Amino acid sequence: MAAVKDGHKVPDELRSCHTMVVDGYVIEGHVPAADIARLLRERPAGVEGLAVAGMPLGSPGMEMDGRTQPYQVIAFGRSGRIVFNTHN
Fold first, then answer.
1. Average pLDDT of 32-54?
2. Residues 68, 25: Cα–Cα separation, whole Å
3. What does the pLDDT average to over 39-65?
4. Strand, coil or helix: what is 50?
5. Full residue range of the structural domain in which residue 7 is found
6. Which residue blocks in the chain are alpha helix, DSSP H?
7. More confidently predicted of 82 and 60
8. pLDDT of residue 37
9. CA triplet 82, 84, 85: central angle to 5 degrees?
């Protein structure tokens, strides 16, 4: 998996347990489907992917007894990194 992440230029500090490529964008970690849909709709310049570092409670696939942690979806690519969305 490291070779896949390296090939798609996923920054080390944003790497997580899951990686997929959707329509040319790399999606790393537990990124909500709505954020992926927004990425595909807006196609922001310089963005090559989205990432959620770690496995925050309440993120997709990490639901546990209604408990949640705030987390950020980070857009990364040629333009650097920006917060694409914040989930509380």
1. 96
2. 27
3. 88
4. strand
5. 2-87
6. 2-7, 33-42
7. 82
8. 98
9. 135
Query: Which is more confident, 2 or 42?
Result: 42
Which residue type occupies 34? A
Count CB neighbours of 57 within 10 A: 14
Beta strands in 1-88 (DSSP E): 19-22, 25-28, 49-51, 71-77, 80-87
Q: Residue for token digits 């925050």?
A: 56
State both tokens at 7.
């090939």
User: Which of the listed ranges 12-16, 54-58, 69-73 does the model predict with the highest average pLDDT?
Assistant: 69-73
Domain count, the chain: 1
Q: Check: CB of residue 65 under 8 Å from CB of residue 3.
A: no
The amino acid present at 17, given as its one-letter code, is C
Number of Cβ within a 10 Å radius of residue 81? 14
- How far is 24 from 87, CA to CA, in rounded Å? 24
